[in-house]
Amino acid sequence: MSLKVYLSGEIHTDWRDQIIAGCQDMDITFSAPVTDHDASDDCGVAILGAEPNKFWHDHKGAKVNAIRTRKAITDADIVIVRFGEKYKQWNAAFDAGFAAALGKSLIIMHGTDHQHALKEVDAAALAVAQTTDEIVGIMRYVIDGTLTP
Question: In the structure, what pLDDT confidence band is assigned to residue 125 with cuts at 50, 70 and 90?
């Protein structure tokens, strides 16, 4: 089985690299948002022109990023959304809702400290994991039906 997996969520840790490395022997194509924070924030004004008002600066960037995000989520078989410890990832919550609305298989990853805040997001998911190893185990089981120790 071949899968397309979109990795959404926090961009301040290497969780994506851990999942990709753990799945290197599986037939999975991964996609993700732009994880260079400055490039993501400034893409709209860098491409479409400066904005003196921060609202419009952010608005342009969000829309340009949404072109990539919508395409990647629409094309994905599975969407994995990671909520990190340090920052609130409102965009990740939006991605999870968009994926759920499209009927995508959704896996959410976060620590126990986010359980209450993310209860509605978790309820839309097919799995809620806390570690990248759990995600890799899910991927292996989905791909070939085997369990990893």
Answer: very high
